[in-house]
Write a structure and sequence with these properties.
alpha/beta; AB_hydrolase_fold; 9 strands; Rossmann fold; globular; 446 residues
Length: 446
């Protein structure tokens, strides 16, 4: 694993899921709807071919044409009540040539990675060079919870609840269908979809629900997000005590939800059960690292981390307020008094809580993000995966590989870590996009 990845994560103060898992009833709704999203035929029916899209701006900027538009997210109607008001309107920007140089009008949809707000980075690093080098236009879709779609109380990319990530994924799948259909109506094609890191996961999900051959180029992502949040360095960005305590207090998570989670790794007979061994190992490492730190020092440790990071005082207070408010809720619901971070548990019980929370996180992440739970893209030969050999953000051990899940796809490896590849290897990402589009043109558009 890249040491630079590990160091970089330590410098980032952003916390995820500071208010917990999300309401149990919301998780149940998401899991039920995931079964619809996992069936391409059923999912495609949710988005009419003529779904309305509004173009707000059409102008020339130097050597390119820029369109901007919006539409109402179909997810809002499919699963009412889950999307915050600010996230309900999908917004996008399109980077086009002044004039097409061939009878093809290829367009690649770009989905955002973690922390990629607005359009600037994807437009500058991918869209403009891709258009200049390969003649491929881009649609840059703003993710729910990001940019203009960010809830007012949310800090930067800090999703409040675990279920927010699943709402984001489901919304992007349906919104991608809206844009694919819109492109077809306006004579654009061939079509493709790409993204980096979290954007690569979302791109894979989007391609799974499109009923035609499509180029798919997921970069720095893999089969499931479960290892990202339980084994990768992103696990350090999660306030585990909040999740552990909420899981122990609200029995719905363990008694009703956990028993419904079946990982594709189990069904496919791979090494999913090794995850339980990992949970134990990870918990043991946590105990060792905190051997000389009492539970009462947890808040001081959090404050110390914040004081060394580039974040203003108000943001620090808001992050702490989220965590404290959840802890107050846990104490009130459990009836416990005293140190609300331990909820009256013995050290043995605390270790059991850690095991349970990690296991539950892996289960819910596999349920909603594991690509084995979704349809295989129509033509896997158009899939080119770009992965980093030393990726500490997206561990690939003990999970089924994308080549196994999508026979016929190919993987290209970069000899670096996640952050290094993200910053310095965008040319490899663009080459993969171009190669996939060329293959699609050869097979279907000659």
């Amino acid at each position: 694993m890249s040491r630079f990845d590990q160091l970089y994560r330590k410098l980032i103060v952003t916390k995820f899921f500071t208010r917990g898992w999300g309401e149990p009833e919301n998780l149940k709704k998401i899991f039920d709807f995931r079964k619809v999203l996992g069936n391409r035929d059923e999912c495609y029916k949710l988005v009419p071919p003529d779904y309305p899209v509004t173009i707000d701006k059409d102008e020339l900027q130097g050597d390119v044409r820029i369109l901007e538009g919006h539409f109402e997210s179909p997810f809002k109607k499919c699963v009412p009540g889950l999307m915050p008001k600010e996230t309900e309107t999908a917004r996008f920007q399109m980077v086009l040539p002044k004039e097409w140089k061939s009878h093809h009008k290829p367009v690649c949809l770009q989905l955002a990675g973690t922390g990629d707000h607005y359009y600037w980075r994807r437009r500058t690093v991918v869209a403009r060079p891709l258009l200049k080098e390969s003649g491929i236009a881009s649609i840059i879709l703003e993710s729910p919870y990001y940019g203009l779609r960010k809830p007012k109380r949310q800090l930067r990319s800090s999703l409040h609840y675990t279920c927010d990530l699943f709402v984001m994924g489901g919304a992007l799948m349906l919104e991608s269908l809206v844009l694919f259909n819109w492109c077809e109506r306006h004579g654009f094609g061939p079509l493709g979809v790409t993204g980096i890191s979290m954007g690569g996961f979302m791109a894979s999900l989007a391609a799974s629900v499109y009923p035609k051959p499509i180029s798919l180029i997921p970069c720095l992502s893999w089969t499931t997000a479960s290892t990202v949040f339980t084994k990768g360095v992103m696990s350090q960005a999660i306030p585990w005590k909040v999740l552990e305590n909420q899981y122990s207090v609200d029995t719905v998570y363990a008694d009703e939800i956990k028993h419904t989670l079946i990982s594709p790794e189990q069904v496919l007979g791979s090494t999913y059960n090794m995850g339980h061994e990992f949970v134990k190992t990870y918990s043991d490492k946590l105990e060792d690292s905190k051997l000389n730190q009492s539970p009462s020092n947890t808040e001081n440790t959090l404050k110390e981390r914040h004081s060394h990071a580039f974040i203003d005082h108000d943001d620090k207070m808001d992050v702490q307020a989220d965590i404290h408010s959840m802890e107050d809720y846990i104490v009130k619901k459990s009836g416990c008094k005293g140190d609300n971070k331990t909820v009256g548990k013995s050290p043995i019980d605390r270790k059991s809580l850690k095991d349970n929370a990690l296991d539950f996180m892996r289960g819910v992440m596999d349920e909603c993000t594991h690509l084995g739970n979704f349809s295989v893209p129509v033509d896997p030969s158009l899939i080119i995966i770009v992965a980093a050999n030393h990726d500490a953000y997206v561990p690939r051990t003990n999970v089924i590989s994308l080549e196994q899940l999508w026979p016929g796809s190919q993987v290209r490896y970069i000899d670096s870590g996640h952050i290094n590849a993200f910053l310095f290897h965008n040319v490899q990402f663009r080459h993969a996009i171009e190669d996939s589009f060329n293959e699609q043109i050869r097979k279907y558009h000659s």
